[in-house]
Amino acid sequence: MKNVTIHEIARALKIDSSTVSRALNNSDRVKESTKKLILKKAEELGYRRNVLASNLRKRKGNTIGVVIPRVSRHFFSSAIAGIEKVAQEAGFNVIISQSLEQFDREERIVENLISNRVDGILISVSMETKKADHLANCIKNGIPFVFFDRHLEGFPESGRVIIDDNFGGFTATEHLINKGCKRIAHFSGPQDLHVYKNRLEGYKKALAKHNLAYSSDTPSRLTEADGTLLAKKILKDFKDIDGAFFANDISAIAAMKYLKKAGIRIPEDIAIVGFSNEPMSEVIEPSLTTIDQSGEIIGKKACELLIDNIAKGNRVFNNEAVVFEPKLIERDSTKK
Amino acid sequence: MKNVTIHEIARALKIDSSTVSRALNNSDRVKESTKKLILKKAEELGYRRNVLASNLRKRKGNTIGVVIPRVSRHFFSSAIAGIEKVAQEAGFNVIISQSLEQFDREERIVENLISNRVDGILISVSMETKKADHLANCIKNGIPFVFFDRHLEGFPESGRVIIDDNFGGFTATEHLINKGCKRIAHFSGPQDLHVYKNRLEGYKKALAKHNLAYSSDTPSRLTEADGTLLAKKILKDFKDIDGAFFANDISAIAAMKYLKKAGIRIPEDIAIVGFSNEPMSEVIEPSLTTIDQSGEIIGKKACELLIDNIAKGNRVFNNEAVVFEPKLIERDSTKK
DNA sequence: TTGTAGGCGTTATCAA
DNA sequence: TTGATAACGCCTACAA
């Protein structure tokens, strides 16, 4: 399986490979006529630049690594869409990997990206991530990264693009209050992640503002199974609530399914608000009131910031914290 | 930003870099004691193998490229899960790219993968894909690929892992017939793709078997918007149908939403069957009867086949066509 | 068990 | 405008 190289083109044309290289890179230091000749011969021989060799020589590969919990979550797949758009325009390739919410997977992925000499990393950390040695490694290796959505503290070098989860939690909760709910429960996620901690804070703030009692369960991982479990708990331990704010849609929807089967009327008995605006939330009945995070915009912005930092050649990092304001999407699960 | 190389380790230890290389590759042709020494020094210096250089030298990169229409479709994200599992065990990296159903994107992606010298490609083609020059290019460059789900004809070199869409279409349609439907419409996808053509064939076969009349619309791309459009057409041109088989869940669900608003009762007025078993199909009311494609199993099998072919060093390709039988998931949208 | 030497395919620097 | 040469970092015959 012989691969055509610049040397073969050079040999065929009886010129030097360095000239071929220049021509293929469209340098202006090569005569137009020979350039044409070279391009033609390259086409003819089916030449294809060996990106590995080129990157090795240039010590960079024009590649951005993206690390997310899972591609199947709507927020993340929209973020990817935004990232790819920006990256492509700037001539970067994108490598996507999913941690599946597992810290060890996340570690391996980041190690791998470093080893592959990516130019930068966009990351939304897993639910298990508490330490950040793997990210410290990036810095050590001169690879800039930008957090989006789920971030960690302690990285003055790196930017982050997030939403105001505190505001989101506050808005969700106050919406329930405005609808007349008096006993509102909140079901949160891992508190090591700011997104969940802040949603909880926002919830508390809204309660405090309106002088209502606090009623929250221990945080879960907010999977579908967790949602079902939480619904059972509601029927057992939170029997008197009239409103519930779930920290994501997946758990909220699973809970709704269970509660409906148990004869609880939504929103009459319990009004419900989710978080993320998964496509499913529009489909379930009653449709689920939720908070939209506009993943595509966040992805775009994060990618811009990263490319900016890559361009800066990691001298002075742009460690901006861009914060978007999430939007309440009012639907039937709170329509009283 | 100095990167630690094997040479620096060698210099620090006053030995040759080739010994270092051997030690780092855990060769048994280096004394245990020096190996220990080298590993320790490597750790100490924060050495990290330059995968680019290593791959260049070895002329292969232990990487599999995956090309799919979109990550946000349940079938594809489950397929990815299966692929990653198998790939990881075999020590391969996985690069995921989405064509977004656009042929030119798909072409670019494949070109890119070839340029990056991936060891093999797993692909499920876009709805726009009719030609396959880009894949012929893979063969020409000695890169094996395996189709999964959406495949093309004319590649005797490459295997494929698919489901029996004909059977799926037949099963879906006969299910409607068994439920008492007499006038069943089918809404298909691009006929260049075998999956949709075969689902249509299966539909026809079931009708023929039961002596029922055929009633199908021109194929669409089966997006959400298409689903809404199809629902409008049903109200206008297919007013008398009592059953509908959609070639995917996304369009079926969009249609259901519209029909419900228009006062059509499901399944009483029209029974509906989708295809793919998207998570949403379980959530909508009535829950949607559909055909499950078991993405993870397909992904796994496809990846195994590919790795098999990679191992064969593209001498004799395993061009097996593995066909899985899809399963009907009966839900409320056909419960008469 | 270790060292020597050369090359994977490109690109950058210098000289012509 | 072109050519010669070295280097990017690693691996692997071959020799010692």
Structure description:
The structure is a homodimer of 336-residue chains. By secondary structure, chain A is of the alpha/beta class. Chain A folds into three domains: 6-49, lambda repressor-like DNA-binding domains (434 Repressor (Amino-terminal Domain), Orthogonal Bundle); 61-163 and 295-325, Response regulator (Rossmann fold, 3-Layer(aba) Sandwich); 165-293 and 329-334, 3-Layer(aba) Sandwich (Rossmann fold), CATH 3.40.50.2300. Chain A contains 13 helices and eleven strands. Chain A has helices at residues 6-13, 17-24, 32-45, 51-58, 74-89, 103-115, 133-140, 165-178, 194-209, 224-237, 249-261, 280-283, 295-311; strands at residues 63-68, 93-98, 120-123, 145-148, 160-163, 184-187, 243-246, 271-273, 290-292, 321-324, 327-329. The mean pLDDT of chain A is 94.
Largest interface: A-B, 41 and 42 residues
Round the Cα radius of gyration of chain A to an integer and report it.
26 Å
Global structural class of chain A? alpha/beta
Strand content of chain A: 5-15%
